[in-house]
Specification:
311 residues, single chain, 7 helices, alpha+beta, three-stranded mixed sheet, elongated, 16% strand, binds dinuclear copper ion
């Protein structure tokens, strides 16, 4: 059929190709339930059209009633038992799949497991690795290793939702509450997603990605991020992820005012006061930030002062 790629069209209705066993479980449940819903839709709509045609008025007088039918015990039993059976089969399938989706694999002796703290904030994702390394928006993770995510949001913030579709389902980042989810990526690559809970003006720009790399490359990256000369790297992530979403990549202004050239940008003490407390309409985007996090931003901005001109 030229011009009509039905399979390709239908594939777009399915969840994205999974790359983690929990995402695989979600996709299988989706496809399994779709079989029944599509079959029921075709059956009901098909019968509806068939009956409309078969029992149309034809030569009957305009106000004469059609045949009055009372009682059809077998039919009534069938349309009661049928849906019960369908729901039962769906429930069994989902309950079989659910542990593989929800349960975080137990850390066993000799087997690696990584835990990353994920904090959703207006309007960025902050990650903390076990050795204290902090990153913004772009997560790195080793391939083939179960990664447990501990997800929350600061008390002063709002609800966000962590979602990288290829790596599993959504999990809400809720102030004052800790949720957990996990993934174990099968192949290296970059997986993208975004905040899935309307959280304010810049919600749509609250993107997230997970770069899955070999274990050795990941270890090297993690070690490198602890060294002193990596501050600018964190600073760049903070500028792009935390500041630029409101003030523009060149500091030219956006929903926040123009900040290019502001002396605050390169003064660690002034910058700390600003990000810790906010100012007027600006929220405290960096409440809880350590000195290292503030210094990283100041260091980056000293080396790469925003030009103020949108490129
Ligand atoms: Cu955070 Cu939407």
């Amino acid at each position: 059929m030229p011009g009509l790629d039905l399979v390709g069209f239908l594939a777009q209705l399915a969840p994205v190709a999974p790359d983690s066993s929990n995402a695989e479980g979600i996709r299988q449940s989706y496809l399994f339930i779709s079989i029944f819903t599509v079959a029921i839709f075709v059956l009901v709509e098909g019968l509806l059209i068939a009956f409309i045609w078969k029992y149309r008025r034809q030569k009957r007088a305009r106000f004469a009633d059609g045949a009055q039918v009372h009682g059809a015990t077998k039919l009534e039993l069938a349309w009661t038992a049928g849906p019960v059976l369908v729901l039962f089969v769906i429930a069994v399938f989902v309950f079989v799949e659910l542990p593989g989706i929800k349960n975080i694999p137990e850390a066993t002796a000799g087997e690696e497991q990584l835990e990353i703290t994920v904090t959703g904030r207006q309007f960025y994702w902050q990650y903390e690795y076990p050795n204290g390394v902090v990153a913004v928006d772009q997560m790195r993770a080793p391939v083939g290793v179960p990664v447990k995510l501990v997800v929350s949001s600061p008390d002063s913030d709002v609800i966000h939702s962590w979602w990288i579709p290829a790596l599993g389902g959504k999990i809400d980042a809720i102030p004052g509450r800790t949720n957990q989810t996990w993934f174990e990526a099968d192949t290296e690559g970059t997986y993208t997603g975004q905040c899935a809970e309307l959280c304010g003006l810049e919600h749509a720009r609250m993107l997230a990605s997970v770069e899955v790399m070999s274990t050795s490359a990941f270890d090297a990256w993690l070690a490198d991020r602890t060294s002193d000369n990596s501050a600018a790297e964190l600073g760049k992530e903070e500028w792009e992820g935390v500041c630029a979403k409101c003030h523009g990549l060149a500091g030219q202004g956006g929903i926040g005012p123009r900040i290019a050239g502001s002396p605050t940008l390169t003064d660690p003490a002034a910058l700390a006061t600003l990000v810790h407390n906010g100012r007027r309409a600006m929220p405290a985007v960096g409440s809880g930030w350590t000195d290292e996090q503030v210094d990283a931003l100041a260091t980056y901005l000293k080396e790469n002062p925003p030009s103020g001109v949108e490129s």
